[in-house]
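JOB MANIFEST
job_type = single_chain_structure
chain_count = 1
residues = 328
[input]
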Amino acid sequence: MTPRVSIIIPNRNGSATIGRCLEAALASRYADFEVIVVDDDSADGSVDIIGRFPCRLVRLTEHCGAAQARNVGARHSQGEVLFFTDADCLVNADALQHVMKALASAPVGTVVGGTYTRRPADDRFFSRFQSVFIHYSETKNLSSPDYVATHAMAMTAETFHRAGGFKESLRPMLEDVEFSHRVRRRGGRLVMNPRLQVRHVFGFSMVGSLRNAWRKSMHWTMYSLRNKDLFKDSGTASLELKTNVGLYFLNLLLFTLYVVTARGGWLVLLAGSVLANIVVNRGLLRAFVHANGAWFSLWATAYYLGVYPLPVGIGAMTGVTRWCRRSN
């Protein structure tokens, strides 16, 4: 008998994307599944849109956060397998088949993760940049990733409930990272299946991309300081990105010293630093080319090396400051 899969989707003011999300989820080619949407007290027209689809809607009467919404969805589910995704993600039609195949060949207690497609659901430059960056970062280590993200996370219901669900105090993000770490500490296994993919609707402008980088870096830094793994190679918080940020600020210093002293030696050091950064990040830079071609790669490389490290670095410094204040 085919095991039933419960697709669980938290929604908070997702009227711009939830319709497309549900269309994709309900188009799954898997034989037996249900779709559960937990609305986190939305103030837009989300609930009306959700009501047009043959899915189960659970409404929260106050804003509780995505972690609690996912836990509520799991409690209302009937599936033997739980598949978590987001309201701005479009699940590929074959995703659940890949979930079941991966779980069938994995030890009991395994959490299976997927990633974004290289091309996002919207064709903006900054959305394409983000989708390639995340896809590359999350698929570098397939057999033992540091975490599995909730845009495509699957496990048996027994595994989920035995682990205790998502930690609801970790608002507004990173509950999936904490859950992954907890599963692994309890002897469970994390695996990434690169065929398990969802298309993300980013809708990123440059401002949106920079704001997202700052916000995620801040929260990630605070979590990493609590977890004592600030310098771990962890998905999008990769050693490549951390190197990129460190060398970016070093390059600013070297350029300032050149301007102040007019000594060419600083420019030589600057060139060496830029070259070293390119070598360290060569995998991601190749991924830009493979996903979107040479012209996109040129601009994406310039953005990644010359702009993106600034909000990431500022976010990290903000996270350190906030963590220190809370620790005192």
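[summary]
The beta strands are 5-11, 33-40, 56-60, 81-84, 89-91, 110-116, 153-156, 189-200.
The first strand starts at residue 5 and ends at 11.
exit_status = 0
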